């Protein structure tokens, strides 16, 4: 039985339901949307319908307006299966704009589905749920390191807010970077986890894919999907990817879009502080779950990843997904980017809030050298006073200030895992 975890997004959902008539919870299948939605119904009352079930789906298709008529909270799970329900919800909200009327969930990005014509603009708030975060697995509060970094006057002020990590933090981070953190997989052995991911990928291809788009040639889509996941953490060259997959570039672009809509991959855009600088202008590609990326690469352990030279890409993907999940919970959301000069320094993750920037460089090593700060220093030189703080996140125990606006910190401290307890 899959263990239950306290999801940090629950608090944000409660806050939004107190203000908005409709809250939409989206994310990949199996990340825990249904469990979270059912928990909120148990807490607050209301009615829950899964549109995966034939009877509720048939009723919703036959009479969408009657189906959504209610005075209490109504949860509609997998709403993308009956697109007309979005229009029915809009009409109901236009008649009665009380907050907390509807919680909708979807295993696809509803804003990018062509079958969903109604976006509920001005009537809804949206929350994206990813796989479990490290802090959720550890039972720790939601991390606030990025908020603290923007608030800190100096690097030593920020470092003073962090706590040393748990003793085995590096081993756990390496394990999670390979195994991923989809809720049903956490208590599985490596062979059973491989079986689970085989089934998960097949389900996405044979079931979820039909909800997103019609694909005439499934083998070529599967080939593109595998090649995309193998490129996690790398700069995306769509022409090169298309050539490797023996596809026309427009077809490859379409398939990548489908994978994004289904939350299997996502793109991190480049940061361009000065359009006159020679910077990489292509996005970086990331898997939504490192477990699936490792599975496609036939990686079962961290040693496998090291032997294949993929440990840096997997750790970077996992850590950036963790930081992105934490930022989605913040009331001061960031624009996330990366910085890389052509044949020069790079920074893995750039957070921009207004005119202020915080940057994070992620290292899979336990020791930090001067060269690891090169990208952060270059970005600071470019930005001047806009640069608030640069952080080298690593798998060692060093937690120290380099200078006024640069510091070094363990990943566990940044991601809020500071208690000595079993994590997985």
Architecture blueprint of SSEs:
Blueprint: H1 9-17, E1 22-26, H2 33-44, E2 47-50, H3 54-62, H4 64-67, E3 74-77, H5 84-95, E4 102-106, E5 124-128, H6 134-138, H7 145-151, H8 155-161, H9 169-179, H10 190-212, H11 218-230, E6 234-235, H12 238-244, H13 249-261, E7 265-268, E8 284-287, H14 290-296, H15 302-307, H16 311-328, E9 335-340, E10 346-353, E11 356-362, H17 374-383, E12 387-394, E13 400-403, E14 406-410, H18 411-414
Parallel strand pairs: 1-4, 1-5, 2-3, 3-4, 11-12, 12-14
Antiparallel strand pairs: 6-8, 7-8, 9-10, 10-11, 13-14
Helix pairs in contact: 9-14, 9-16, 11-13, 12-13
Give structural attributes.
424 residues, Rossmann fold, globular, 2 domains, single chain, six-stranded mixed β-sheet, 18 helices
Question: How is this structure best described in words?
Answer:
48% of the residues are buried. With 424 residues, the chain is of the alpha/beta class. It has 2 domains: 9-128, P-loop containing nucleotide triphosphate hydrolases (Rossmann fold, 3-Layer(aba) Sandwich), CATH 3.40.50; 134-414, no CATH class. The model has no long low-confidence stretch (mean pLDDT 91). The chain has helices at residues 9-17, 33-44, 54-62, 64-67, 84-95, 134-138, 145-151, 155-161, 169-179, 190-212, 218-230, 238-244, 249-261, 290-296, 302-307, 311-328, 374-383, 411-414; strands spanning 22-26, 47-50, 74-77, 102-106, 124-128, 234-235, 265-268, 284-287, 335-340, 346-353, 356-362, 387-394, 400-403, 406-410. The strands form 3 sheets. The protein has a 6-stranded mixed beta sheet, sandwiched between helices. A 5-stranded parallel beta sheet has the order 2-3-4-1-5, covered by helices on one side.
